[in-house]
Design brief:
globular
């Protein structure tokens, strides 16, 4: 990349539109780079909205998955931070609503279970944030676990709707989702082949 006289660091948000344009054109290295660089910004935006670190990390993961799904909607001629901020705000609101519904209707040890599963998620998330990593990791899950992750996390279906769609009980969906997320986190932390 030619020198432009800019004093910006190569990982500054002002460089992200160019990286995203390259990623949209199929440059996997640029995509990996821009996603890794976005993680601290997403985390900071989520922390401004929420105090619960486990929920913040869930939002970081959700935003990265959303970026993966809707990356084609980003216009590289426009600033990227408002786009990323809007995605983070939407995922934060969704997470807050989901948590409110869970806490209002259900009594179980999900907080403890998720806190245990999320230990060290920050470092591992940066390792598998890129598209091919997400696809590879989802592909490594057993079919039922993959289906539940796709319905709950990617399609954002409720646990009850997922249970109805899969003809499983809500507790079975929770168990499959927990095992799938734990497996994804474990695989994300073991390095790459």
């Amino acid at each position: 990349m030619p020198q432009t006289g800019s004093t910006l660091a190569p990982d500054a948000p002002d460089h992200w539109p160019a990286l995203m344009a390259r990623a949209q054109a199929g440059d996997g290295e640029a995509y990996n780079r821009v996603l890794r660089q976005m993680v601290p910004a997403i985390r900071a935006m989520a922390r401004r909205r929420l105090r619960d670190e486990a929920l913040v990390e869930d939002i970081v993961q959700d935003v990265l998955l959303t970026v993966h799904r809707v990356r084609h909607t980003y216009d590289p001629a426009r600033p990227i931070m408002p786009w990323l901020s809007a995605l983070t705000a939407a995922r934060s609101v969704d997470a807050t609503r989901r948590r409110g519904r869970h806490m209002a209707r259900e009594v179980y040890e999900e907080e403890h279970m998720l806190a245990w599963a999320d230990a060290g998620a920050t470092e591992r998330m940066e390792g598998f944030a890129a598209r091919h990593e997400v696809e590879r990791m989802l592909g490594a899950l057993p079919a039922r676990q993959r289906e539940v992750v796709e319905l709950v996390r990617l399609r954002e279906m409720s646990l009850a709707d997922t249970a109805a769609a899969t003809r499983l009980s809500v507790p079975a969906i929770k168990a499959l989702l927990h095992r799938a997320l734990a497996r994804l986190r474990q695989n994300g932390g073991e390095g790459h082949d």
